Amino acid sequence: MTTLTKSEGAQAPTGPEAFLSVRDLRVRFSTEDGIVKAVDGLSFDVERGKTLGIVGESGSGKSVTNLTVLGLHNPMSSTVEGEIVLDGKELVTATEREMEKLRGNKVAMIFQDPLTALSPYYTVGRQIAEPFMKHTGASRKEAKDRAVEMLTKVGIPQPKTRVDDYPHQFSGGMRQRAMIAMALICNPDLLIADEPTTALDVTVQAQILDLLKDLQQEFGSAIIFITHDLGVISHMADDLLVMYSGRAVERGSVREVLRNPQHPYTWGLLSSMPRLGGNTSKALMPIPGNPPSLLNPPSGCPFHPRCAFRSEVPGTACSDERPLLADGRAAACHLTAEQKQTIFIDKIQPRLR
């Protein structure tokens, strides 16, 4: 049974600009093997009209966080604690009826795989129109006309004809555009995009990213963009949150984090990325080891078993003490600011050239 409580010590939203404020979010799943700590004390803000990028390896808690914002976690096996405040409305304690009024209306989600997210039994137009009818009370004809309008906005050719097609009659890129149309049909204030371009080729991916930016300018929506691709984030986001083992390990503006990263995990992500026009003779530097078990996460800093720089920290701080993530531009690491800067300049920057 889901437990919905406010965590002790959860901080208040930082200011009036935060449209979505998440504080000390903890999401745990009960399994036969034990309790999975999928999200473990996560806090962040999203401002109106801005895009927050969330990056991290598979299993870092990115998708679970945003499914929880929408209230789509499994109510029979999950425990949720903390604060989620959307435009002044507390969501952790909201009823299912209250969440149904918000989903697709005030907040919407673009799922990673449109082929599985869209039903094969209904036309694309009917599926796009459904949330518009539900939230506005529009007639079926009015909703279909609105669906045609949205298909036009997302660049589907011959929208008056294609509105009556089924998902299997659309290409992968067109299905993703249809998902965007469905998400935006009620002009949501917050759009969550969960790796929306992962299965698309590079050309279509660029078109979808440009489309999202154009529609954000038109509708003024805040966006949470989830991905493992830092190249995509550099194109899309204003602010960046780096997640590892269900926690935020670094945050700041995209420019700050990508130009001067401060956490060893972020260094590892950047060092393992291929670069167009880069030195092709240099081998990529993968992060050693495996992501930690969320059933039994390591003590102290969750990244310390894989960190090449833990020996720079005196004593046993890395293995015994959990580093905290301060407000604003910050990284949760026991290295001093001077050590981080020295390591980045001497050892990390040469790898990125």
Automatic annotation (TrEMBL):
It is found in: Cell membrane. Gene3D superfamilies: P-loop containing nucleotide triphosphate hydrolases. Transmembrane segments: none annotated. Residues 22-270 form the ABC transporter domain. It comes from the Bacteria. It is a peripheral membrane protein. InterPro entries: AAA+_ATPase, ABC_Ni/Peptide_Import, ABC_transporter-like_ATP-bd, ABC_transporter-like_CS, Oligopep_ABC_C, P-loop_NTPase. GO terms for molecular function: ATP binding. Keywords: ATP-binding, Cell membrane, Membrane, Nucleotide-binding, Transport. Its main location: membrane. Belongs to the ABC transporter superfamily. This is ABC transporter ATP-binding protein. It comes from Streptomyces galilaeus. The lineage of its organism: Bacteria, Bacillati, Actinomycetota, Actinomycetes, Kitasatosporales.
